[in-house]
Design a protein that fits this description.
The chain is an alpha/beta fold. It has 17 helices and ten strands.
Length: 404
């Protein structure tokens, strides 16, 4: 179906429209990718009096007397705020709030299409942590959950931590935890392919930003015993004097082998390479990894190791791209995670809920279907969101954060 221009497109200057006329990407985005629609129809005075005044006053009064009713009688129980400051947008970097809107709209679209969750993109024109947190806290009564998006590290860690402390609704930084959930699911199935045990493997993560830190944390929780994280200056270890508090904490919990040096040194004999940083890893370093190695080169659009090169040396290869097998795509996680959290009326998203989501994703690949080029479901697999949602809701009850 050809994308139709939004009615408001006439407000855009003709010169701007003409500049991109005929480009199918711009045509799809013209006027925006989402809109607000009514869930009921107002066809006569009786409908109007119930939907708005005077009838709506009865609902307002009831909620004032019992605030918990807001979930039942407003959209709060099914709407997420997708919030960014535009400081770390995709691979584009700090492009500002206005330029981030196409991505935030896209995120809202994916929430609806894949999880049946409504969401509102919010691009904030502020980068100070205090100001960002206070703004979101003041917006929070409207929403049932907060999805933080494309916020630069290390600020993103502090923002998420403080919002979790102040709000009683799920707060989830997808660049961190969505990536981590899908990586763990794919790794579980890659281990099934190679016959290796998660407790026995050695993992090297290239990148100590939002995704790298979250992936390291969830892999440690899942049982990886030997894990090293590498940033642009080398392997994280406690003796490095240049580490910020987030990296220092991670250094204390990783690198049990006492590695130092650069990425190419850490990869010698490693079972898993996980790239979430960009750059290029030389083939000779990949060639020195262990037999039956697994390469997850997730930089997009240019993986740290091109799949053609990775396949020469690795048993399983995954990327962040849709034109190669085994795409590690956050859309496999966040719609179902929020759907499950909403279904359970969870006050927050716990580590156990994230682990449950990863296990549910991995479990969708049966033993008969599992193969090196099929370790993770497609985003278009209709089973994904319901399976993740059910597992997350069950975990919410088990962890004591469910209120429904």
């Amino acid at each position: 179906m050809v994308a139709q221009p939004h009615p408001s497109v006439s407000a855009v200057p003709a010169a701007e429209i003409d500049r991109y006329a005929g480009d199918p990407v711009f045509e799809l985005h013209r006027g925006g990718k989402i809109e607000v629609t009514s869930s009921i129809h107002v066809t006569d005075a009786a409908d109007l009096s119930k939907a708005y005044t005077p009838g709506v006053a009865r609902v307002c009064t009831a909620i004032a007397e019992d605030p918990a009713l807001v979930r039942r009688y407003t959209w709060k129980s099914n709407v997420v705020a997708v919030v960014t400051d535009g400081t770390a947008v995709l691979g584009l970097g700090d492009i500002g709030p206005a330029a981030s809107l196409p991505v935030m709209e896209g995120k809202a679209l994916l929430f609806k299409e894949f999880g049946g969750v409504d969401s509102v993109p919010i691009a904030l024109d502020c980068t100070a942590v205090d100001e960002f947190v206070e703004t979101v806290v003041r917006l929070a009564p409207t929403f049932g959950g907060i999805n933080l998006e494309d916020i630069s590290a290390p600020r993103c860690f502090e923002i998420e931590r403080r919002l979790k402390e102040r709000l009683d609704i799920p707060v989830f930084h997808d660049d961190q935890h969505g990536t981590a959930v899908v990586v763990l699911a794919a790794l579980r199935n890659a281990l099934r392919v190679t016959g290796k045990s998660i407790e026995d493997i050695r993992v090297v993560i290239s990148g100590a930003g939002a995704a790298g830190v979250a992936c390291a944390r969830i892999l440690l929780q899942a049982g990886v015993g030997d894990l090293a994280v590498v940033d642009s200056k080398g392997v994280l270890h406690e003796d490095r004097p240049d580490l910020n508090p987030v990296k220092l904490s991670l250094a204390r919990d990783t690198n049990t082998g006492g590695l130092s040096g650069r990425l190419v040194d850490a990869l010698d004999g490693a079972d898993v390479f996980l790239g979430v940083s960009g750059g290029t890893v030389p083939e000779e370093a990949i060639a020195r990894m262990a037999d039956g190695s697994m390469i997850f080169a997730l930089a997009n659009p240019n993986p740290e190791v091109h799949p053609d090169i990775a396949h020469r040396h690795a048993a399983v290869v995954a990327t962040g791209r849709s034109d190669f097998p085994n795409q590690i795509n956050n859309v496999l996680a966040f719609p179902g995670i929020f759907r499950g959290a909403f279904d359970a009326n969870a006050s927050r998203i716990t580590e156990g809920m994230k682990l449950a989501a990863a296990d549910a994703l991995a479990g969708l690949i049966s033993a008969d279907d599992l193969r090196p080029d099929y370790i993770i479901p497609s985003p278009f697999d209709a089973r994904v969101a319901p399976a993740v949602a059910a597992a997350v809701a069950e975990a919410a009850h088990a962890e004591g954060v469910a209120r429904a």
